[in-house]
Amino acid sequence: MHVTTLFDRPDAPMEAVVRRSWPDWMFGAEGADLLGIVRRFPRHQVILFEGSELVAVGNSVPLAQVPDALPDDGWDWALRSAAPGPHRCALAVSVLPTHRGRGLSSQVLRAFGPTLVPVRPNGFTGGDFAEHVAATRGDGLPVDPWLRTHVRLGGRVEGVCSRSMTLRASPDAWEGWDRSGLLAELTPDGVYVEPNVWVRHG
């Protein structure tokens, strides 16, 4: 495995890996401008090669400042606040479907170094979001698999950001997209407000 950045490998097909790893609504809805933002900061995009194949990508943005009280609009705040500075906010880890289950996401997270992350708990399927985030196993680790990965790597859960990501699209557009990855209900007029969890590494 070889870990580098998009700055050092501008030819890497980063966008293709990200698009294969996320549902259509992450690119079609208003407010989900992940790729548009991260292209401005190639040094902050971690890419992981196996041989000549790009197998995983970690997207993040730099931040000039971080408030003492982390904002409730986590993902949106990071995209809005992205600017050259000493801090980092990690936004997404994408692993090709054919390479999942091999611990590559952990390698990408380690490559970020000290960072904030508005985490999308991938084990949440409904119910009380805060209860799911707080739930632990017998060994004290989170029940949620993605949160558990972060904690195993030294991340500290710092609380829920209940309106981390706000996306808008017409109801007809949402009908045409795979909505299996949504963590909250859509409003009748096509607004999606997603809760995340602030985790701090380093």
Quick description:
The chain is α+β, with helices and mostly antiparallel strands and 202 residues long. It has one domain: Gcn5-related N-acetyltransferase (GNAT) (Aminopeptidase).
Polypeptide structure, described:
The chain is α+β, with helices and mostly antiparallel strands and 202 residues long. It has a single domain, classed as Gcn5-related N-acetyltransferase (GNAT) (Aminopeptidase). The protein is built from 8 helices and 7 strands, in the order E-H-H-H-E-E-H-E-H-E-H-H-E-H-E. The strands form 2 sheets. A 4-stranded antiparallel beta sheet has the order 1-2-3-4. Strands 5-7-6 form a 3-stranded antiparallel beta sheet, sandwiched between helices. The longest helix is centred in the middle third of the chain and has 9 residues. It is globular.
Strand content: 25-35%
Radius of gyration, in Å, reads 16 Å
Poorly predicted sequence stretches spanning 5 or more consecutive residues = none
- What is the CATH topology? Aminopeptidase
CATH class: Alpha Beta
Oligomer: single chain
Give helix and strand order, one letter per element, not per position: EHHHEEHEHEHHEHE
The major sheet is characterized as: 4 strands, antiparallel
Envelope shape: globular
Helix content: 25-40%
Instruction: Work out the helix count.
Output: 8
Number of strands: 7
Mean pLDDT: 94
With strands numbered from the N-terminus, the spatial order across the biggest sheet is 1-2-3-4
Distance between the termini: 24 Å
Query: Structural class, please?
Result: alpha+beta
Count structural domains. Answer: 1
The assigned CATH architecture is: 3-Layer(aba) Sandwich
